[in-house]
């Protein structure tokens, strides 16, 4: 019985997608209820789509589900948007307080409908976010990191 519960727990957690990270189904959740399709290189791109009312983005297939336990991107996206609205600046910025992860992640601040929004992205493969060039690169310069506390 315990093995079954562990298997089910791993199965449910394994179905969740990270924010702005492309799944094997080439879908990326931008928020608990919004998603984008991904390029062949597994980079979120194009229009942001919304799940129907009462549905949550899973990043998998189907991309939207009524099962809230499968929802992706819960929590931190609100803080990222608050950060972008407070600085009111477009572009990419280092993100995170764990340097093992943060050198791979960055915040992208953008305007949609006249309002600032922010999303967290991860650099692909063995690239890292270089705060000097504000791009993902194979080597990093001197980085400074942003930590957003809940």
UniProtKB/TrEMBL annotation:
<dbReference type="InterPro" id="IPR036508">
    <property type="entry name" value="Chitin-bd_dom_sf"/>
</dbReference>
<keyword id="KW-0732">Signal</keyword>
<feature type="signal peptide">
    <location>
        <begin position="1"/>
        <end position="17"/>
    </location>
</feature>
<protein>
    <recommendedName>
        <fullName>Chitin-binding type-2 domain-containing protein</fullName>
    </recommendedName>
</protein>
């Amino acid at each position: 019985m315990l093995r079954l519960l562990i298997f089910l727990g791993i199965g449910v957690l394994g179905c969740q997608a990270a924010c702005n990270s492309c799944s094997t189904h080439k879908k990326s959740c931008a928020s608990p209820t919004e998603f984008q399709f991904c390029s062949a290189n597994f980079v979120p791109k194009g229009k942001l789509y919304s799940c129907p009312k009462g549905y949550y983005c899973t990043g998998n297939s189907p991309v939207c589900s009524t099962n809230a336990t499968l929802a992706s991107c819960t929590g931190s996206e609100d803080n990222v948007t608050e950060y972008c609205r407070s600085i009111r600046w477009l572009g990419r910025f280092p993100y995170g307080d764990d340097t093992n992860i943060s050198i791979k992640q960055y915040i992208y601040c953008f305007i949609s409908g006249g309002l600032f929004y922010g999303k967290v992205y991860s650099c692909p493969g063995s690239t890292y976010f270089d705060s000097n060039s504000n791009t993902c690169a194979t080597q990093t310069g001197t980085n400074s990191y942003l930590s957003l506390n809940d």
